[in-house]
């Protein structure tokens, strides 16, 4: 018996699941996680908050996650300088679930979503999973968004949802505010459609957040996560900021009590320690920049990075280089972009191990 013998939906036949390898190797720099464990005082605070939540686990959690959304709105206001209120914020189990709720609300059968690839593979997978048609738009050679081609694609396809990933995974490329505005205008003229700006990595960027653009643009949504900058990938907490009407709209599809009381308590504890966690972000940015310089110093091509990861290449046999680095105990990511690999910035020691592995793995000049 295999999947094809089951009466699954036709559009899922032949598809592959999301599958970053989870291998047991000493240095894991393949899934853009934060290498720093949560600091002990925060671990203690989580235990305290979760204990308090446990006393009420006989009851369903706050379905509207009011206190948490308040905390997330404060965080956004403080870090972007743009005032955001709780009514503009919605949270779910990872930004993947936020994206899924948005696709369930604004996509679906008979509708299409457009993204500019290479980009985060889950945008296409979540679209397909929600019955939304997926259309792959182009990028320039340097992986920036090809604005003319993008605007033309929007006019032609008239998608219901447009994905803009900034900084973009797996390339690290940030998108300028002007570009997002032009895409938004094109998307409104064509339909109007929902424009999702995925800012999972924005805390690592040289550029300011695009969040202020939501003002006066009810069809623009910014998604965020605590998986990267907050170093809490295991928590599963993502969120969005948008017009309050968007928050009202996703209520139509969210499962009741989707965000457990334990999750809400843990995320609130993390928010209390924002400053410490953002201190690690500064260290990671410096390490990212060091890796960029070192890889360029080795004669490799490196895409400018605004994220906590770096795309480097170009390799004639990408898989062979990936394997050679792995054989030296360092796991990086082959995202299927021909000629390129991606490495996540780790601790200084992990990054040194990675650079040593790369030096030993480069094909010798012919
Ligand atoms: N968006 C982007 C661009 C990502 O790279 C990721 C995680 N790799 C996510 C969203 C989802 O993150 P999470 O569900 O952990 O919030």
TrEMBL record:
Reactions that this protein is recorded to catalyse: L-histidinol phosphate + 2-oxoglutarate = 3-(imidazol-4-yl)-2-oxopropyl phosphate + L-glutamate
Which Gene3D superfamilies does its entry note? Aspartate Aminotransferase, domain 1, Type I PLP-dependent aspartate aminotransferase-like (Major domain)
One short Pfam name that applies is Aminotran_1_2
Q: Residue ranges of the Aminotransferase class I/classII large domain?
A: 27-357
Q: Which residues fall in a compositionally biased region of kind Basic and acidic residues?
A: 1-13
Cofactor(s) needed, names only, are:
pyridoxal 5'-phosphate
Q: Write the Enzyme Commission number(s) for this entry.
A: 2.6.1.9
Against SUPFAM superfamilies, the record matches this protein to: PLP-dependent transferases
Task: List the Gene Ontology MF annotations in alphabetical order.
Answer: histidinol-phosphate transaminase activity
Q: In which pathway does it act?
A: Amino-acid biosynthesis; L-histidine biosynthesis; L-histidine from 5-phospho-alpha-D-ribose 1-diphosphate: step 7/9
Taxonomy, superkingdom: Bacteria
| Residues modified to N6-(pyridoxal phosphate)lysine | 228
- List UniProt keywords, sorted A-Z: Amino-acid biosynthesis, Aminotransferase, Histidine biosynthesis, Pyridoxal phosphate, Transferase
Segments of this protein annotated with the region Disordered? 1-24
Which family does the similarity line name? Belongs to the class-II pyridoxal-phosphate-dependent aminotransferase family. Histidinol-phosphate aminotransferase subfamily.
PANTHER family recorded: HISTIDINOL-PHOSPHATE AMINOTRANSFERASE (PTHR42885:SF2), HISTIDINOL-PHOSPHATE AMINOTRANSFERASE-RELATED (PTHR42885)
Subunit info here reads: Homodimer.
| NCBIfam families according to UniProt | hisC (TIGR01141), PRK03317.1 (NF002877)
Protein's recorded name = Histidinol-phosphate aminotransferase
């Amino acid at each position: 018996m295999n999947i094809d013998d089951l009466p699954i939906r036709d559009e899922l036949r032949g598809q592959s699941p999301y599958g970053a390898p989870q291998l047991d190797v000493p240095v894991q720099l393949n899934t853009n996680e934060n290498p720093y464990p949560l600091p002990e005082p925060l671990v203690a605070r989580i235990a305290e908050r979760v204990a308090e939540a446990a006393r009420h686990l006989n009851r369903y959690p706050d379905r509207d996650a009011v206190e948490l959304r308040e905390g997330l709105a404060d965080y956004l206001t403080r870090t972007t300088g743009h005032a955001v209120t709780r009514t503009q914020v919605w949270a779910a189990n990872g930004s993947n679930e936020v994206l899924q709720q948005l696709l369930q609300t604004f996509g679906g059968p008979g509708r299409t979503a457009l993204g500019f690839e290479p980009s985060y593979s889950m945008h296409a997978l979540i679209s397909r999973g929600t019955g939304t048609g997926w259309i792959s738009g182009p990028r320039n050679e340097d992986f920036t968004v090809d604005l003319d081609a993008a605007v033309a694609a929007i006019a032609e396809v008239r998608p219901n949802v447009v994905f803009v990933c900034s900084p973009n995974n797996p390339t690290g490329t940030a998108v300028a505010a002007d570009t997002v505005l032009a895409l938004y205008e094109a998307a409104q003229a064509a339909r109007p459609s929902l424009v999702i700006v995925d800012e999972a990595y924005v805390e690592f960027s040289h550029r300011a957040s695009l969040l202020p653009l939501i003002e006066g643009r009810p069809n623009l949504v910014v998604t965020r996560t605590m998986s990267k900058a907050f170093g809490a990938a295991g928590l599963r907490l993502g969120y969005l900021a948008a017009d309050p009407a968007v928050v009202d709209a996703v209520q139509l599809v969210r499962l009741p009590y989707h965000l457990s009381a334990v999750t809400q308590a843990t995320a609130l504890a993390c928010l209390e320690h924002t400053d410490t966690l953002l201190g690690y972000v500064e260290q990671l940015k410096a390490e990212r920049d060091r890796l960029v310089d070192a890889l360029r110093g080795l004669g490799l091509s490196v895409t400018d990075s605004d994220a906590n990861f770096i795309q480097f290449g170009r390799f004639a046999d990408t898989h062979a280089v990936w394997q050679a680095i792995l054989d030296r105990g360092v796991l990086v990511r082959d995202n299927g972009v021909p000629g390129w690999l991606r490495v996540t910035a780790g601790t200084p020691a992990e990054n040194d191990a990675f650079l040593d592995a790369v030096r030993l793995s480069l094909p010798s000049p012919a």
